[in-house]
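Full entry
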Amino acid sequence: MAVARTQKEIRQRAPWWLVGLLFLNLGLMLYDARDGVTKQRMIRVWVQALLSPFQRATAGVGSTGSGFFQYLSNLRNAAAENTQLKQRIEQMEMELNQLRADRDENQRLRALLDLKDKSQYTVVPASVIARDPSIWFNTVTINRGSSSGVELNMPVVTPGGIVGRIIGVSPWSAQVMLLSDERSGAGAVIGQLGQSKALGSIKGLGDSDLLEMHHVPGTEEVNPGDYVVTTGQDGIYPPGLNVGEVVEVKKGSATVSHNIHIRPGARLNALGEVAVLLYHPPQAGAPEQALPNVEKKSGQ
C-alpha cells in the first residue's frame, strides 16, 4: 500500500516537476541569453528596463531635496553678503560725507586766504569752536584771542559779509556777538557808499535769521534785491563791507521811515571759519580853532 501510494504521489507531482524543470531551463536560457550587438545578458537589460522608472522617481526626489537644501544655503549666503554690502555702503557714505566736509572746509579756507590777500586790514583767520545754545546761535566762540591781537569790538567777517563783533576776549579765544542778536547794531547804507542817501542802522531780530534796518527815509527808493554795505560811522565796522541783500520792504512816507528786512551775506547759522579784522576806527580829531568867545576873552 505504501509503494502504491508513493507511485500515485509521484504521478500527481510529475507535472509540477516538469513545469518546474521547464521554468528552470527557461531561466537558465534567459540568464545565458545575450544581445547580439552589445553581448550583454538579456536578463540584465530587462531588469534594468523594469527598474528604470523607479530609479528616475528616486533620482527626482533626491534632486528636489538636494535643490531645496542648496536653495537654503544660497539664501544664507545671500543674506550674509547683503549685510556686508550694507555695511560697506554705510562706510562709503560716511567717507563721502567726510570728503564733502573736507572739500567745503577747504573752499572756505581758500576764500579766507583770498580775503586776507585783498583786504586792506590785517586779517586773523579763526575757527568757530563753540556756539550759543539758542536756536539762532546769537553768539559763538572762536579759537583766537588777545595773543593773536584780537581786541574788544573788532569786526568779525567771512567772504560773504560781516558776522558780528568781539564782545569778550581771553588769551586764546574770543566771544563774538552775531548780527542776528537783538543787541547788535551797525551803520549801513542801501546802494553805493558815498552816493546813496538811504542811510540807516541794522540790528538782529533774535528769533529770525533776517536783519532789520531802520531810519531809512521813506522818500528814498528801496527795493528787494538791493545790496547793503556798512558806512563805518558806528565805530566798529570799516566802511564798504557787505551786510546782505534786501528781501522785504514795508514802504514808508515823507514822515515815516521804511521798515526793511535784510538777508545777511554771511551764513550766520552755519559758521565754520571766520576772520577777525584787526581794525581800529579813526579817532575824531580835536577842533582846529577855539571858540571865538574864548579867543576874545584871552585877548583881554
